[in-house]
Amino acid sequence: MKTKLTELTDKELQLLMKQGNESAFNVLFSRYWTRVFNYAYKIFKETEVCEDIVQEVFISLWNNADKTTILNIEAYLLKAVKYRIANHIRSIKFEQEQLDIIENVGAFIPSVEDIEYKELQANIMDKVKTLPPKCREVFILSRFENFSNPEIAEKMNISEHTVEKHITYALRILRNSFGSWHFTIIVMHLFI
């Protein structure tokens, strides 16, 4: 019995893509486009720019399919979008203060072994754990699991307005806890 492409795993589809199977690519595109676009839009709120960046990432995925092996396609796509948006942000003309922040943030994107990064991450998580339960759940879904506001509202059976209120409250708590410079770094960590 012939298996439908939509029933295949990402790894199976990737193997077919390596062989030049455009239909396998189309399945992956359909499977992840919305999620990747929502992630991009959460970082950079311009629809056209996000659509272009997501399109570029998928084109790159197709063009390099025969040269690369990707262990987790979804994570790869999200990371690729994050870096393309970061590059796009760097290419926009900013005032010197904004350029300095962006340059310094680049220096703070640490390796997994970086102790300071682990400490910052632990401090963020400690503060997030002190949030009220619903607010904490909304914030984690939004900032750490990359759910969109409509997805969170549906998942938790609350309104999008309530989701936004929880996120705003959580960000205010973090800003008050870490100060403005550290908060800028935290925001860049959570969005890029």
| Structural category | mainly alpha
Largest sheet: none
Distance between the termini: 44 Å
How much of the residues is beta strand, in percent? under 5%
Question: How large is the count of helical segments?
Answer: 9
The 3D shape can be described as: globular
User: How many strand segments?
Assistant: 0
List segments where confidence is low: pLDDT < 50 over at least 5 consecutive residues.
106-113
Helix content: over 70%
Order of helices and strands: HHHHHHHHH
Radius of gyration of CA atoms, rounded to a whole number: 19 Å
- Mean pLDDT, to the nearest integer, reads 79
In a few lines, what is going on in this structure?
With 192 residues, this protein is an all-alpha fold. It has helices at residues 10-18, 22-43, 47-63, 73-91, 96-107, 115-129, 133-144, 149-156, 160-191.
